[in-house]
Design goal:
Two copies of one chain form a homodimer. Chain A has about 260 residues and is mainly α. Chain A is about 70% helix and about 0% strand. In chain A, helix 9 packs antiparallel against helix 10 and helix 10 packs across helix 11.
Chain lengths: ~260, ~260
């Protein structure tokens, strides 16, 4: 392996910088191509380095690079869920959803290949990474609803919006996990339908579904009902819940035989 | 390969009967064990035949047997969705859900391994089979909502409950597909939580979610609103929608700042 033809910039990178550069090149390729269509040569030439250098950093080859790229994407995705604890819950969720959908938009092919499965490079380790992202998303939502989570073992702070600090019950956890699945499924359908409807409409529709699922669960579960009632106090008349409620009226208004 | 030790019953089976017997043995094994733990020897000994005989019927070995077993399970699952076109929509859906959840209950490990992915025997062909089951479920629901589908190109019959016979728009299709994902995800969580809550509660909760998702979509989509209004006319006061509406009231009743 000769370094005679390398540009100065080639050598100036530290080990960490080089590793980051290779992962970033791999992520770009995996994000826009199914994993089976990405070769180590592609990664090397995208990063402007030799194939042996890629192997020096990733002796496990494509599988190891894929996992490192996935790990990096998972870290980025988990950043989307961090949100301050102020204002109506639906506004917080809308901001997190905007960041999440921007990620989906920017990593479309890779996101699809990853979540749809069937890829040659999927293993129990890659599944564990995807599951961790889902769990982080669920934990963040439960935290904002006022619950203690693994990441925040003492529950939310002192701002009054979330006073409980114990663990959520099974029905509420199932509702939240289910909605996260809804978001994933809707994102895949959205990519499949060439990103229609516009992303803002998709976001509003997912917010509606969150409210609808939580409301439906609240009718059968006292804990969820308490959470919903406290969350509704924070909502504003012009916010998503108020709008949803007012849009619902004309649909059901003459169906009094059901009440 | 000697046939000296075989019982008379061994030879009496026709080719089709033998094939069916082997698939049924494989399905039983795949339903209760992760695919990687099932060997051809297991299938042979469960069916009471020799390993070479299994290979004669399935020269592709375990992969071919797995796909045949999956195909057979998919056919069985698709039967769950067939439902007559009478009565409130939620009653039809409840009956289909009962059959589906009974299938999940009876094929727990295999169902989980299949839908969670990551199995060594998963290929684009097995994914296509799973996708076909999802599409069949979606088509059945859209058919009952009054739409033309691939399986019923002229739409529903003359019984008046479903007078349209054109294709559903993208938002309604997305709502239905999303709910099917909810059912799958909730089924997996249910298996993971040792089949808690009781299956009847899970069924009612999934029905609530169907109504809630459809209602939320109806507020943004005229087509869905029309469908919901017609469906509500068929619902009974003591049915799931009436009960959901009455249970919803105490949760929201003093939140007038949102209306």
């Amino acid at each position: 392996m000769s370094s005679s033809g390398t540009a100065p910039a080639y050598r100036r990178l530290t080990v960490d910088q080089r590793r980051t550069q290779l992962i970033s090149a791999a992520l770009g390729l995996f994000a826009h191509n199914p994993p089976e269509d990405v070769s180590l040569d592609d990664v090397a030439s995208t990063a402007g380095v030799s194939r042996p250098l890629v192997y020096r950093y990733f002796p496990g080859g494509k599988q190891q690079l894929y996992e490192a790229a996935l790990r990096s994407a998972a870290d980025e995705l988990e950043q989307c869920f961090a949100e301050s604890q102020t204002g109506p819950l639906t506004s917080r969720l809308a901001r997190a959803l905007d960041r999440y959908l921007a990620f989906v938009d920017g990593h479309d092919a890779g996101f699809m290949a990853l979540l749809q499965g069937g890829s040659v490079v999927q293993t129990s380790r890659t599944h564990a990474i995807v599951d961790e992202v889902r769990r982080t998303a669920a934990d963040q939502i439960l935290f904002h609803l006022g619950f203690r989570t693994e990441a925040a073992p003492h529950g939310p702070g002192e701002d009054g919006s979330a006073p409980q600090g114990h663990q959520a019950g099974p029905r509420l956890r199932m509702t939240v996990s289910t909605w996260i699945t809804v978001v994933e499924a809707a994102s895949l359908i959205w990519l499949d339908e060439e990103k229609q409807p516009p992303v803002g409409e998709l976001r509003d529709w997912l917010l509606d579904h969150f409210v609808a699922l939580l409301m439906a669960s609240a009718t059968r579960d006292a804990e969820t009902a308490g959470i919903v009632r406290r969350a509704l106090d924070l909502e504003e008349r012009d916010g998503p819940v108020g709008e949803l409620a007012r849009r619902m009226l004309p649909v059901v208004t003459d169906k009094v035989h059901l009440l």
